[in-house]
Amino acid sequence: MAHRRVSTQAVTGLVIVVIGALLLVTTTGVYDVGSLWRWVPSLFVLLGFWALYQSDFRNVTGPVLLVILALIVQLLALGLLTATTIASWRPLLIVAFGLAVLLGQWRTRRRVPSSRGDDFDLVGIFGGSERRITSQSFTGGTSTAIFGGVEVDLRDATVADPPAVVTATALFGGVEVTVPEDWAVTVDALPILGAVEDDRARFVDGEPKAKPDLVLTGFVAFGGITLKD
Fold this sequence. Notes:
The chain starts with 7 loop residues before the first helix and ends with a strand. The strands form two sheets. The chain has a six-stranded parallel sheet with strand order 1-3-5-7-11-9, with no helix packed on it. About 35% of the residues lie in helices and about 30% in strands. Helix 1 (about 10-25) runs antiparallel to helix 2 (about 40-55) and helix 2 (about 40-55) packs antiparallel against helix 3. By secondary structure, the protein is an alpha/beta fold. The longest helix has 20 residues, at about 10-25. It folds into two domains: about 30-110; about 115-229, no CATH class.
């Protein structure tokens, strides 16, 4: 039996829960977690590696930047690296930025990868991720954008047993979902200092469907979720 991978969105949620729990026990005086705070950056290092693995190394730039930044903070917290050492290596940031620009230029020229899978799990962390879904029995998926962007194209997909459910999470980033013109979509996402926008053309074609083809749900803070056709 094939085992499903734990989604990047689930791992991100777990990291947030752990950090929130540490804050809670600290502010309430239940337990002194001072020594544990030193290891919090390691959670983001693991998150970056998981995002690489989960995307089958298609989404590289964002997760690698997350790993590098979190690793630097971790080494600083452990006293294995000093601010002086970091300052002497600052030109590497310019090199990294240039490589990111080149990679972004390459991404705009290549074909958007397609997937025939019935679901998807996409993540954009300090970078972007795109996918065109061509499944004829599409069931849904998850997309997570953190200081980055995710684009999902469902125009070639078919929902065999509606509704399919797409869960989008955007934190200081954006998620864009493109659907066929004839799909009925229910948008049920929670915006906190962000926006959820339905940019589809408005038209009435025949009788309303008993069930929507797609339910778009999720959470957005300081970012946006956009539905297009």
